[in-house]
Amino acid sequence: MATLKGVQLFHDTDGNVAQLHGIGVQRFGERWYAYGEIKNDGNLFQGVACYSTTDFAQWRHEGTVLPVGEEGEIFGPTRIIERPKVLRRPSDGRYVMYLHVDGEDNYSYAHIGTAIADSPTGPFEFLSTFQFRGYESRDIGVFQDEDGTGYILSEDRPHGTHIYRLSEDYLSVVEDVACLKGTDYWAGYESPIMVKRDGVYYWFGSQLTGWDCNDNMYATASDLHGPWSDWQPFTPAGSRTFDSQCDIIVPLDGADQWHATRFLYIGDRWNPKDLGNSQLVTLPIEIGEGKALLEWHDEWDNRL
Fold it and tell me: Where are the transmembrane segments (predicted)?
């Protein structure tokens, strides 16, 4: 069994700080694979790192699985590229990475990027970027349903936050399934996450305050098309989600991700002055019967 702290820096087996900012996590086989932004030298793109674990306490560095491109390329060193997320494509078992790809030192481009690999540890080949129907795409998340259908969650500030259904090859969008606005203001939510338990979809997101923390929210539905419930907080009011921004919620048990009863919340606690050492909030989150609740623990046993 592994003990996690409520807030911490993950370290790899060589003792180095794991570069898992904007983290995405999936279980492939007997290990969880985590993908993150390398932030050792500011906010511009430095590649995507991969680490694997069996307990979220010991991390094996699998390397830089998507390296920086050349100057002037869409994934070059002057771009902002964030929130790497990976799905395994059912049609052939290959691994597709999705990224928020933005401009040269600014947020004017707002596209979804794709890359592909034969292994969860890469190397990933960068493919392309796109927008669905011209909608902006900033923070993203991914979700795979029980029938193998893949979805991208995409924050589109002028309109809201979308659920996009992916094509069979997972490389394009074929349907705008739903688009939700915020409860109290004109736009949606960033850093979107989705999990499913007992036939209920739980959609999590952060209010639009950038690296400044806020009370993150969630909504629920029994069908991805809706109707969706009102957004509501899943942490105590004023806690600012324990000074974090939601990144990923990881199913920890069960035969697969759709039959889990225990979940791990991971959120970024951004440090703009030292992004490479930004901590992660790692807490158990209760999800079930249409409710979600995140409470603080200095330390806790994840039973892995």
Answer: none
Maximum alpha-carbon separation in the chain: 50
pTM for the full model? 0.97
* DSSP SS3 for 190: strand
Residues in CB range of 188: below 8 A, 6 or more apart: 155, 156, 157, 159, 160, 161, 162, 179, 180, 181, 182, 205, 208
Residue 235: closest CA among 278, 280, 204, 191: 204
Q: Identify the CATH assignment for 3-301 out of 3.90.550.10, 3.90.226.10, 3.40.50.740, 2.115.10.20.
A: 2.115.10.20
The values of phi and psi at residue 81, to 5°, are -135, 125
Collapsed DSSP state (helix, strand, coil) of residue 249: strand
Q: Are 262 and 252 in contact (CB under 8 A)?
A: yes
User: What is the C-alpha to C-alpha distance for residues 151 and 147, in angstroms, rounded to an integer?
Assistant: 12
The domain limits of the chain are 3-301
Q: Which amino acid is present at 213?
A: C
What mean pLDDT is predicted for residues 95-114?
95
**pLDDT over 90 for what percent of the chain?**
92
Question: Is residue 246 predicted with pLDDT exceeding 90?
Answer: yes
What is the predicted pLDDT for the residue at 186?
61
Is-contact 127 73, C-beta < 8 A?
Answer: no
Sign of CA pseudo-dihedral 171, 175, 181, 187: positive
